[in-house]
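In this section we walk through a basic example: taking a raw amino acid sequence and producing a predicted 3D structure, encoded as discrete structure tokens. The instruction is simple. Fold the sequence below.
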Amino acid sequence: MILRNKYIYNYLIINILSFFLIACSGNHGRDSSAIDLPQIREKGELTVVTLNSSISYFIYRNQEMGYEYDLIADFARSQGLKLNIKVAENISRLEEMLQSKEADIVAYPVQMDNSMKQKVLFCGLEQQNHLVIVQRANRKDTIATDVTQLIHREVWVQNNTRYQDRLKSLNTELGGGIEIRNIVLDTVTTEDLIDMVANGKIQYTVSESNLARLSKTYHSNIDINLRISFPQRTSWVVRKESPQLASAVNDWALNISVNTTIRAATKRYFEMSKNEHPDLDIPPVKKGDISPYDDLFKKYAPQMGWEWQTLASIAYQESRFKTHLESWAGAKGLMGIMPRTARNFGFSPDSLGNPEISIRASVKILQYLQKIYSDVENPDEKKKFVLAAYNAGNGHIDDARKLAEKYGADADIWDGNVAEYVRLKSEPEYYNDKLCRNGYLRGSETFNYVSEVINRSETYKGLANR
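The resulting token sequence is shown next.
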């Protein structure tokens, strides 16, 4: 009996030990597959997923930008990590790519709710966003300050959007009376509607508050203070099994030095005017001259076969002929050249304040773009493609040409063809197309840039012929 009990005892001990060994082995397997901060540091690279938009991430003049991008780039630098950016097609894909370990972190404002809190860890800066009415605010305009003032007023929104849904709910809460007008064309974006408000074509539209803030830097004559929804809390997210990464992001967000980065990004995207210095006075010139730099434009324009007035028009568009300006995007000098681009063409960014160096650098860039669009035979059309690429970066223009071909437009003609698809690159349906390698573009800016530079150069030619 004693021997039998001893045998049973030993049998139980062996099975218990086996259980713990298997359990430990299983835990070890899970730990080895987990990706948290130590594994990321060992790899030396932080993989980030975000969305293309005018706020989160975009490429402008061949340079990565965006409010969320600037912040996550700062975090990566603080950890000594290389940044690898991936772009999801939509919000639902953000979580899918995170959970499938295609990315380590979502650098996009994800809405905080109980269902998401069970799936992910929220971390970093907490932001608040809400829906607002966008209305024109010129001197004689009456500003609606209460939602009841929207009764018997037309409010335009995109069809089948949360903007439309919220407006319908608000209308029900008010007992009816808001005249909801739906844009059914899928080629009209929220940014287009805001532009239409600013230009007086429609009276009201609805926008997310962060997009409205950014739009106000393009249109100083809009009011965005009338809220029509409760604020929604948002922040970045990581997987549940990445608590050390979440902790590091939280520590980074609380670091006092990071406040400088946040303030700089906030100023860059939500405060600085994007209107290419509209209020600057032009430097005084001699009678009959267009600018103080006419002789330099005349000296360098023949190198690319252009009229010198076109170079002068670019300079006006970029800097109002001021030599030491820097745009919101970081473009410098008389001809508005990005520092990285200057370096790529053999020029020091610090030298761009010199007007002759700025013009020389600009001509080199324009000559390079002429070669890229050598397949466009018509010289007037080629000039438009070159100007568009000078403004936005040739990657976006190449995307638009591919879209034009796809939809049956002429990829060698700007007006009414490629220009339309440049403008549509602010619409997810188009910038998420697999043909597009460069994502979102505020295409209306490039659309307008080309026409303004061309039209002004024609005016300059007329002045010179007097």
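Looking at the output, two observations stand out. The radius of gyration is 28 Å. Residues 71 and 261 are 7 Å apart (CA to CA). In the next section we compare this with other chains.
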